[in-house]
Specification:
heterodimer; A: 451 residues; D-Maltodextrin-Binding Protein, domain 2; 2 domains; 4-stranded mixed sheet; B: 296 residues; mainly alpha; MetI-like fold; two-stranded antiparallel ribbon; 2 strands; globular
Chain lengths: 451, 296
Amino acid sequence: MKKRYSLVLAGLLSTSLLLSACGGNSNSNNNEGNTASSSDTESTAPAATESKDTGSSGKAVTLQFWTLFDGGDGANMQTLIDEFNKSHPDIVVKNTKLVWAEYYTKLITAVGNGNGPDVGISHTSRLPDLIDQGVVTTVDDAATDAGVDWASYNQNLLNATVVDGKHYAAPIDTHPFIMFYNKALLKDAGLLGDDGKPVLEQSADGFVNFLTTLKEKLPAKVTPFALSNSNDDPYRLWWALYSQLGGNDIVSDDLKSAAVDQEKGAKAADYIQKLYTGGFIKKNDPDFYKNFQSGTAAIMMTGVWATGTWESTKGLDFGAMPIPKIYDQEATWGDSHTIILPTTKDNDPAKRKAAMIFADWVASNGQIWAKAGHIPSKPSVLEKQEFKDMPNRSDYASVASTVKFNKPSTKNWQIRDNASFKFLNEVWANKMTPADAMTKLQDGVQKVLND
Amino acid sequence: MKMNKMRADVQALLFLLPFLIVYLLFTIWPMIKGVQMTFYKWTLIKKMDYVGWSNYSKMLRDQEMWDALWHSTIFVILTTPTMIVLAIVLALIANRKSRMQKFYRSIFFLPSVLSVAVASFLGLFVFQPYTGLVNSVLHLIGILNEHREIYWLTETNLAWIAVSLITLWWTVGFNFILYLSAMQDIPDEIYEAARLDGANDRQTFWSITLPYLSPITKTIAMLQIIASFKVFLQIQIITGGGPLDQTRPIIQLIYQTGFKKNDLGYAATMSYMLFAILLILSIIQYAINNRKGANT
């Protein structure tokens, strides 16, 4: 019996040893995992660090930078980082690319257990939630140290990142909802002006007439207006029209209660519903990007990020413009990518200063970032020759000042996913009246806010 | 004698130790931790507030939870009987002596090697309007007017059918194998004797094959009910829970609550409720099996 006890004891001891070993391992594994995923950038970085250490300014500051970009965006961001590292001998930025769908969850958990990066990316719409959770810090101190001139930013974009009078991020772009058109098809329908721009009266009736002409003049298999039938893009159009009517978000100023302006919301939803039921938008289009890309749709609306994609599509002669002013005032949906300083263990001022120098530099060199279609956040970039040389961008750059952002509610994304999408999708499918949807939206938003 | 037995136990324990440690660490410990979570408002970065039983009382009053639970139940009702019938039919086909035997076995089992994501995306392509396989075939054979489309994925009832069909196609292979091996265990003499008595195919199927399959059927039914209650990924990918959350199963609601709404405490509470339901079902199943076992 006694022997048995000692064996059990030994077993327990060895178990606890293993357990503690596991605990230690999992931490270091995590760190390795994080840096390993940035392998493509890592290869060049160590060499750069070494040479920089011997530089005149002493030891270089190394910044861990987490990004959520892939494709064209990912490549452009890497170019920006490489250029920055070249021109700033005392700062090394290391890029870790994360998958966009998992980015925020990973950022929040990593910062929560003290393994977060020095610099990160956040959408403007996501900032309030990150502030609320203590994931991001105010950047005012670091911006002052780094000599950032906030006046050099587009104030509409900048203001959306200011909460309670404090700056929480440096916006590097805006990616609003705009309109693209197929020049060849518009020409066939006689709706392309001599200046290469659509002949379109900027009003509610004007836009419908425009679509009616497209529908009548073009072959039946051509979609007049390519748009998805659910979720993001029709919601963005609704948001734009609602804002054009003077609607001011769907939450109250104190962010505590739902404030859907039901009359304006219903009017906007009704207008869009008629575009679906009127046969201008292909019903349940499985892939409206492909529809436009393969030249079988006359116009389409989505975010500016599509510009880069259309440009690399052979044989697609397209143009871009702000979405039409259907109602009283110009407005559209949009969001921004911003550079944030996540909370770190020591909040090292030297790193924070370096991070803001980097953030401001990225914003100032927005012509590289604009390659994918985004509108740079600094008006001075729009004047650069490199920016002007790129086609299309200048046609919609003015939209930056008319983007209607969400109020800084921590629940923005939940409201969108769990209330707005849900009821508006029913309107587009013609299963719910716009008025009903607005009543339900009001309740739905309130429910999300109460949770 | 006693010493030997003890040594064998210790040796067994040593061999089991690696598994036990991992099991305790990654299964048992999180389960205990999960119970703790249900009493807190617990976010991803562990901002914790003790809330007592309020997650539980909230759950009982939460219409969305009951809806989601009902949707999971619909899925169970739709897929369990059809799965059993389909698996038996396929097993019968593959069990017939023919040159195609091997071919049948491989193609019936093949979809099971796919991951759920691959199967779901295939399903998405197949059921898509305009370009999807199903609608194209319906157009081709003239059942569906060329200018009409069936919107499989955006009408609630059709979406259930589409999701169920994809799930059946994807998971039937495993149950098919179970039935096939059970059929091969039925002694040939019994069939021979039946033939001598002049029984036809239908009679042998109903009176011999089916009764012999009944133990495995019980097992499959139980496994299938549990698996169907846990349905998540194919619905997440194919319908996203829509339209109007009318195909959202309980696991998807748990996932959304935990990782989108950042409310792990409430998500854990719902998980334990699902756990309780599955536990009760298993106990019932166990009880029924044991009673039957005692009788025969």
